[in-house]
Design goal:
Layout (H helix, E strand, L loop, with lengths): L3 E2 L2 H23 L4 E7 L3 H16 L3 E7 L5 H12 L6 E4 L9 H7 L11 H8 L9 H13 L7 E5 L6 H10 L3 E5 L6 H6 L3 E4 L17 E4 L3 E4 L5 E4 L4 H4 L5 E2 L7 H19 L7
Parallel strand pairs: 1-11, 2-3, 2-4, 5-6, 5-7, 7-8, 8-11
Antiparallel strand pairs: 9-10
Helix pairs in contact: 1-10, 2-10, 6-7, 6-10
The structure holds nicotinamide-adenine-dinucleotide.
Length: about 290
């Protein structure tokens, strides 16, 4: 059996096209231009690439992109003051602080300082609480939101399906579990202390791997016909010192067994930024009491 490849790149492209149309409509009908402020502290090379891509895609969708690049030595108080300013700026509808922050800054204090109604990443405890409560008003973290969109494009009716999420982080694993629960799946959250992870995995109709361990999930872990979503991004040596990106799933082996599977790269990754734009448009509409066109 050979799996259907779940194409995150083209799904993200379609979503961005829809967002661009929605943004044009908001400008025309309501004079509203959604604005996203991205804050980067320091010069982590991967973070710089992420921030550049986020800003580029925000502007390409016709939205306002505001970038704040701060020196690595910036103090917590100065960062909190910037967030307070952005919280009060009516042109800013979404705020994102790129993680990780330098070690002298308390990450939780900074994320908690973002106004929940401008929390484009959905990391604020108020939004996590709303999601856990099953409320539709929660801002949902971008990566799990993108995974859910890919799963819903692949499976007609999720109700009653067994899902396993491998990984229990606040930004991927836990919100992913809440989203699948909201879709009426029977959800298992597995993690580093789970006993018999392969056995747990083999019972699942949907597998979401968000671990950060290259090719941890083998082909023998997958129930025939399951849907596999690989969130992992791992840099490995492809031989001769050449780097390659691989996921948490052994793609070659799992794609022999699964009904559908996301590749790495080109699966979940491209959906994350598209979902960030999606969240910002939603927040801008809410701020102005406009029904979201999405
Ligand atoms: P994290 O390190 O915060 O969490 C990893 C989780 O995996 C933990 O809950 C841990 O208990 C679990 N774990 C670790 N080793 C395990 C093992 N051997 N067996 C079972 N569980 C184990 O990571 P994260 O932020 O959730 O990210 C996970 C992966 O997803 C990383 O590779 C990251 O780069 C990637 N990621 C991708 C995107 C994207 O846009 N595609 C976004 C966020 C994260």
């Amino acid at each position: 059996m050979s799996s259907r490849i779940i194409d995150g790149k083209s799904t993200a492209e379609e979503l961005r096209k829809r967002l661009t149309g929605a943004v044009a409509g908001l400008a025309e009908r309501h004079g509203l231009r959604p604005g996203l402020a991205v804050v980067l502290v320091g010069d982590n090379p991967a973070s710089r690439v992420y921030v550049r891509n986020k800003a580029r895609q925000t502007a390409a969708a016709g939205m306002r992109s505001l970038e704040h690049r701060l020196d690595a030595a910036t103090g917590e108080a100065e960062l909190l003051a910037l967030i307070a300013k952005l919280n009060g700026d009516p042109e800013v509808h979404g705020i994102l602080v790129q993680l990780p922050l330098p070690p002298h800054i308390n990450e939780a204090a900074v994320l908690n300082a973002i106004a929940p109604h401008k929390d484009a990443d959905g990391f604020h405890p108020v939004n996590a609480g709303l999601l856990a409560g099953g409320g539709g008003d929660a801002v949902v973290p971008c990566t799990p939101l993108g995974c859910l969109m890919l799963i819903k494009n692949t499976v007609d009716d999720l109700a009653g399906m067994r899902a396993i999420i491998i990984g229990r982080s606040n930004i991927v694993g836990k919100p992913m579990a809440q989203l699948l629960l909201r879709e009426h799946c029977t959800v298992t959250i597995a993690h580093s202390r789970t006993r018999d992870l392969p056995g747990e995995c083999r019972r699942a109709d949907i597998v979401v791997a968000a671990v950060g361990r290259p090719r941890l999930v083998g082909g023998g872990w997958i129930k025939p016909g399951a849907v596999v979503v690989d969130v992992g991004i791992n840099r490995v040596d492809a031989g001769g010192g050449k780097p390659a990106l691989v996921g948490d799933v052994d793609f070659a082996a799992a794609s022999e067994v699964a009904a559908a599977i996301t590749p790495v790269p080109g699966g979940v990754g491209p959906m994350t930024i598209a979902c960030l734009l999606h969240n910002t448009v939603t927040l801008a509409c809410r701020a102005h009491g406009i029904q979201s066109p999405l």
